[in-house]
Amino acid sequence: MTATTPTDTVAEVLAELAALEDPRTREVNAKHGDDHGVHLGTLRTLAKRLKTQQELACQLWKTDDTAARLLAILICRPRAFGRDELDVMLREARAPKVHDWLVNYVVKKNPHSEELRLTWCADQDPVVASAGWALTTERVSKKPEGLDLAGLLDVIEREMKDAPDRLQWAMNHCLAQIGIEHAAHRARAIDIGERLAVLKDYPTSPGCTSPYAPVWIEEMVRRAHA
Known about the structure:
By secondary structure, this protein is an all-alpha fold. It is built from 13 helices and no strands.
């Protein structure tokens, strides 16, 4: 990656993050496994002020502080990271929000994303594998050419029911996306969802779509044709 001298020091940024800490926000985040108390909107505002600073981003990541890592993701250059750097970073990403943002805001924009997708999908660590499935879902939606959609459904049908939570969630998202985007596989995707019943009873707020794949698929298809 290309190194640049940060205009803000790590100590200054950490002090600012500490000042932005809100106990109520930390309490809410803790319910989702995220150990930070800075509102995400506030983080985005701070990132907008700091602008892109790759070296500062790398230094913030090394602090192992969740809020600092989220900020690092927002101010980094996604294409500046090497394949091995991203692999290490993903395995270091303890908090679910850091994991999700790293995959969605950095890895998806990196030239090594496809290689990492294949590597991570085959990983024995279910959290790492969930990142591979998230990247697969992205391809299902935006670049399905070359994907074996029937083969993906075979794996989901065989493994999703007993998968650990985060991997199960990622596989379920892929299942729903196949059904939403690809009419030829829609009936089978709905059938798999109905038989496995994964997330069927997941609490869903009013106005939100259930993550239960059959309902999710049917609602998104309905909206597309409305």
